[in-house]
What does this fold into?
Amino acid sequence: MGKVIGIDLGTTNSVVAYMDRLEPRVIINEEGGRVTPSVVGFSKANERFVGDIAKRQLLINPDATIHSVKRFIGKRYKEAGRDTPLVNYEVAENKHGDVAIKVGERLYSPAEISAMILQKLRRSAEDFLGEPVTEAIITVPAHFNDRQRQATKDAGTIAGLNVLRIINEPTAAALAYLHDRRKNCTIAVYDFGGGTFDISIVGIDNDVGDVRATRGNSALGGGDIDRVVTDWLLEQFRTEHGIDASGDKIVRQRLRDAAERAKIDLSTATETEIHLPFLTADAQGPRHLQVTLTRAAFENMAGPLFENTIDECRKVLAESGLRVEDIEEVVMVGGSSRIPRVKEMVKEFFKRPLNHAFNPDEVVAIGAAIQAGVLEGEVKSVTLLDVTNLSLGIEVEGRRFAKLIPKNTTIPAQKIQMVSTVIDDQHTVKIHVLQGESGTATDNVSLGEFELVGLESAPRGAPRIEVKFAVDASGIVHVSARDGRGVQNAITIRAPTGMSKLEIEQAKSEASVHERRREEAAEVKDSRGTIEKQMVALETFLREHKALMHKQDVAETEQALKRGRMALAKSTDKANIDETSNYLKRFSAHLSDKLGVAIIPIQ
Ligand code: AMP
It folds into this structure.
């Protein structure tokens, strides 16, 4: 088995890490960064960029620059209403009723876009480690439901990765703590990122971490704070100029950018100046925005969001059956945990100093790498027992929800439920599987209607069918069934999922074709670079030595340069470029030998 990498696939940024013998290390990406913006940009020529370059085109090409796609992964279109106002690209509905991202005429599933980010991380890891990487651990927010987990796994598959395990982000952070500290205690992991909030309570006993309870909110992150500030900026602009600029995408993107910068500034400064010249123009000329935002005003407007996170802390403690005094350490994770008011509120709630020993941007990927080390067998002495984040159950009479595996059950977990028919000779039984906490079935997330088909003719109530519901170590739900005679596979289960196997395979082969094209384009670029250097060396040589050279040699050198220029003009023909490069190399060596002067291209 090659190296298994640990990936924190974040809403805003992603990080990839690995175990270097017994030490977890963050992998540096192609641009030299430790974090990669989770942004995918498409050019007019349908070229794709991921990371920093894509983030840079956010302002100029907002329709074709996809950020925060994690907010949509595994979501039904009708569930995405709260997230769509946070982005400027088009969010559509695909034929399965799931979210799709529209770029030009093409619809992409959020898993396909996420796969593009994963592909870049995988490439960075391969370049860094100097070997192919095919296996990974990917982290997700603790409160992600089965569909979101499955879609994240699909994204890995599309990117050509075998996803060995999906682990919860706060659990990964707890693993990093466990690996580093080895201290028996109970910790809280407060994870406030770009798009999500999670809080987990973890007991640590010797080398075993035991997640006692976990809660989260998928519409509570840095992006939501930016939206509050953006709305305030729009209001300021309206008050000063009487113009409602909210309909203009570029204006909204500029405001959101400025809002995020101001928010980050206010983590260290007590006030910040927001200056956006030429925001819009009307008959009176250009309109600028210039306002001061104080930390106090910012805390006031974002306060309700911060309060929500504390509310979740209160609830998770109640669910864990512990008191505030039982929590000995609070580990802060995620970029938004750097906000001073957030730190104060968490400190006040838990009544103790916070642990800032870990880099909040990297600790989740570090934990994922440690889990990779555990699965590789390299790291022997840490075990983390995780829990289900949501209750799993089925719909019963009266549209009620019957819980089969309650939330906060240690995973893997399973539950067997006997079902039967309600009419004579019934050949099919439908089981509607859901996740959530509401007693009303429709208020929970539907995972699908699992159909047991192929039942033998029998009076109603006679068939005894054993249905097994299991939640695996990745938090992914599996349903299997066998009939009363104990014959497995006597019944076929049909379960609707987000992307079909065929669609995943198609997306995977498309992604690998794209990767091959990208590699070829990079090789062509390298070869062109070599020719350009050879030609500069030859041109310089000719300029400096022409007067002393034989006429024939001058003509041959000019001919060689002409051939080089022609090859460069056919920019995509790699074979021709390579052949010309070899020819130039041979010609330069021959000329150099003949005249006794070295012709060395600059490196
Ligand atoms: P993450 O998902 O952990 O990468 O967190 C990204 C979020 O953290 C984004 O919304 C950032 O704007 C936010 N963020 C990063 N640094 C800071 C900071 N110093 N103060 C406030 N928010 C920050």
